[in-house]
User: Fold this.
Amino acid sequence: MTAGPSSSASSGLSQRAIEIAESATLAITSRAKALKADGHSVIGFGAGEPDFPTPQAIVDVAMAAAADPANHRYTPAAGLPEFREAIAAKTKRDFGFEVEASQVVVTNGGKHAVYATCQVLLDPGDEVLLPAPFWVSYPEVIKLAGGVPVLVPTDSSTGFQATIERLDAAVTDRTKMLVFVSPSNPTGAVYPPEAIAAIGNWAAARGIWVMTDEIYEHLVYGSAEHASMPTVAPDLRDRCVVLNGCSKSYAMTGWRVGWMIAPQPVAAAAIRMQSHMTSNVSNVAQRAGIAAVAGDLDAVAEMRDAFDRRRVTMVRMLNEIPGVSCPEPEGAFYTFPNVEGLLNRPLANGSSAASSLDLAALVLDEAKVAFVPGEAFGAPGSARFSFALGDDDIVEGLGRLAALAG
Assistant:
């Protein structure tokens, strides 16, 4: 008797397509929107995007750009020359990292920059150090490039920051790259400049590449300070790729404008790849991007003030729920509480959840409150709550959660 066809063969899908996991954050957001469409009052803490509109000055530039026939044609795959220059100038202005425009590659959002970096640097079997908790897309994008994610555990006792000792313990002769993120999604951790310098110098001494994601650069609170790794660890500059974009700081998630800054050979390789994958990013969105990065940071400061206020409210309300423990995030717009005290016990309606994944589904069904379970970030027993939503919604949503928790 002959064996039946594999699932890959019978479906016609590649093994790569079968194995890739859906983005948990987008899945939660989609389900919450479906419930809203059915008439339910849903409070969504899942989405990682500001609730503010894109600043009007940026929109005005885009509207004018859409009417200009010069933007109706193909442009260079690497990005508009003037946008690459503006990104280089912004990078020096904000963090003292001086780069050439030729090192900048404009991408279709920050996620595309992550993908391009992994495709350019990784060969099958290369290991990538990935501090956990991690953003949901990192391990999947690493695997799409044939790489092997090697998790480096962190926890609240160290402020969710990876230590040199734990990084050392994870290194093998196949280690090619470290993924570094500060401010962090999902934990809100912000590494102090001296810690960033230490990790950068450690990577440089070992000959390890670093992909540093700085998309939340301007969203830091209190005494926390963002530092760009190649600035504080200059010995790493030839082995460091900096990722950034307009999505978070300028409330431009839907515009799909990101970029990578890399050593010349890496940037050139990414441009060659992009010339076949996507060609140029939308010209209208790039013109808006120029207005964003070349403009002042007044609108960013207003958003940051609102996020800071909401952060304080959310941390207080979460910590008031018996069974929930929430450290105070220093950056981005997420809290990452431990919810293990809500598991394996009856809630107010008599139901119970065995995991944070089960809890997320139960809370969405019963309280119409959406959050992303820690399993999505490699941290079972935790949860990510975004505070990028209105003050009233935060109070209402967390009030519903508290009532269900009992």
Q: What stands out?
A: Confidence is low (pLDDT under 50) at residues 1-5. Residues 200 and 233 are 5 Å apart (CA to CA). The two ends are 58 Å apart (CA to CA).
